[in-house]
Write a structure and sequence with these properties.
The chain has about 475 residues and is of the alpha+beta class. The protein has helices spanning about 20-30, 45-70, 100-120, 125-130, 130-150, 150-155, 165-185, 215-235, 240-245, 265-275, 320-335, 345-370, 375-400, 405-425, 430, 435-450, 455-460, and strands at about 5, 15-20, 75, 80-90, 90-95, 190-195, 200-205, 275, 280-290, 295-305, 310-315. The chain starts with a strand and ends in a 10-residue tail after the last helix. InterPro entries: FUZ/MON1/HPS1_longin_1, FUZ/MON1/HPS1_longin_2, HPS1.
Length: about 475
């Protein structure tokens, strides 16, 4: 029995992934407690039943965390079922299964890492954007599969394909030309170009303006690439009956209906994640690279050169100072929402308010410097809401009983920050604008590498090196 659940501070479920055994068990408990009738018992889960069953545990966890700073890390049940807990941006992550606690914790930390790369500080994006949550589910499936059979994944490493110096220089030159062409055809100068064969890393070239990719970001890109391959093979090879079988493996209850898109069937969601451009399956996404301590939104384009050979083109589409300011503001609001007003919390609240003010100032300065007129209204609303919150906290320092309504004000400020994040750093239009350029570059790279792509595929099957004897 396996399950990953993600709760917000209102105990609402914004993401879920579980197997059939878990679904049957939850429905059994629902019937037992009178939450659903026997006629409703099936392989799907009513979201409200799931919330009611987990509400006492989630509420207890939140109280232990906010009031006592002593939250649960894991719970072990008599029947061998284990649960582990973790938090990110005020959201509670729960992983349940029959594996040992250490493995569940590791898998949950990987899930949080994926959320950081896909959503940045705005975890609620998983509830609003169904294709985003579907991509997260694909990544989790890929990691679990790789962890079962790939030693590199277990030690959090990417295996490099060993090739001779001459071929290596040729590949780097091809990637350099590709990166420079993307740079010349678009307005973006921070460009990376990578080649993967299966899940093995071949080579990387970055323009001189770009920050060096951190190991954790390369590992994430490797898993994203592998997920792309497995999903596109399923997309290409499976018929509708196979798709029905695939849906039976995992089920996800709907989030709040007002946030769900009208058309969110499995096939439609999958076609939004993986685009078939000119007969060549490609993935176009925005991810937040954060391995170097900076929060840099990048457009990622993954395209097929040959079976199991992928070209990854990345370019930075947002300002890392702006994204970092948004991250600081989001995280500060989370601390304020989870901290009670009392004599012992004044110092913490003062520090948090200063961090939040610094983040909001950076947001305002960057928007003003680069004249981002599309978000000026949102920035003004953000500043008005922030000034109100700061003034209310100053009043609360004098009178602790006057803190009513602060949670609503903080939630409203989060909404403004979320709008700015989506319009600047995670704007999907920034990806689609580069598809034509990426398609041209892909054709160029494919033509230049055609003479040795078969060799790379064979080499990847057994990553050996040749030498004379004795060594």
């Amino acid at each position: 029995m396996h399950c990953i659940l993600l709760f917000d501070h209102r105990n609402d479920i914004i993401f879920s992934k579980f197997d059939q055994k878990f679904a049957l068990h939850i429905n059994y408990l629902g019937v037992l407690q009178g939450l659903i009738s026997k006629d409703e018992k099936n392989n799907e889960i009513n979201k409200n039943v799931l919330i009611q069953l987990f509400a006492p545990l989630v509420t207890s966890q939140q109280i232990m965390s906010s009031q006592f700073s002593n939250s649960y890390t894991s719970i072990q049940c008599q029947d061998g079922t284990n649960m582990v807990f973790d938090e990110y941006m005020g959201y509670l992550f729960v992983h349940m299964g029959d594996e040992d606690v250490s493995w569940l914790k590791r898998a949950l930390s990987v899930c949080i890492c994926f959320v950081q790369h896909l959503c940045g500080p705005d975890v609620a994006e998983l509830q609003i954007n169904n294709s985003r949550s579907q991509l997260l589910a694909h990544l989790l499936d890929t990691w679990i599969s790789l962890a079962d059979k790939d030693q590199g994944c277990l030690v959090e490493a990417v295996e490099q394909l060993t090739i001779n110096a001459e071929l290596s220089n040729t590949v780097i030159k091809i990637l350099k030309d590709a990166a420079n062409k993307v740079k010349s055809m678009t307005e973006y100068s921070h460009v990376h170009a990578l080649i993967f064969v299966d899940n093995k890393f071949v080579s990387l070239y970055s323009t001189k303006e770009a920050e060096e990719l951190a190991p954790v970001d390369i590992l994430f890109l490797n898993i994203l690439n592998k997920s792309f391959w497995w999903s596109t093979n399923k997309f290409k090879d499976q018929d509708s009956d196979d798709d029905d079988d695939a849906k039976e493996e995992y089920f996800s209850p709907q989030s709040s209906p007002k946030h769900m898109p009208e058309d969110c069937s499995y096939n439609n969601v999958k076609s939004k994640i993986f685009n078939n451009s000119g007969g060549n399956m490609m993935l176009h996404e925005i991810v937040v690279l954060c391995g170097n301590g900076m929060f840099s939104p990048h457009a990622v384009h993954i395209s097929k050169l040959e079976d199991n050979i992928s070209l990854l083109l990345l370019y930075q589409v947002g300002n890392e100072v702006l994204c970092g300011g948004l991250h600081d503001a989001f995280s500060s609001i989370v601390v304020l929402q989870n901290t009670e007003l009392n004599e012992g919390s004044d110092d913490l609240i003062h520090r948090t308010l200063d961090i939040c003010e610094g983040g909001i100032k950076r947001i305002h300065d960057i928007i003003k410097k680069y004249k981002m007129t599309a978000v000026e209204v949102n920035v003004r609303q953000m500043q008005i809401k922030w000034e109100f919150i700061r003034r209310r906290y100053n009043e609360c320092f004098k009178d602790k009983e006057s803190g009513g309504g602060l949670e609503t004000s903080c939630s409203s400020l989060c909404d403004s920050l979320r709008q700015i994040l989506q319009l600047t750093c995670l704007n999907k239009n920034l990806v689609t604008n580069g598809i034509e350029c990426v398609t041209m570059v892909r054709s160029q790279v494919q033509s230049e590498m055609k003479d040795f792509m078969t060799f790379l595929k064979v080499k990847a099957e057994c990553n050996f090196t040749l030498g004379s004897y004795p060594f």
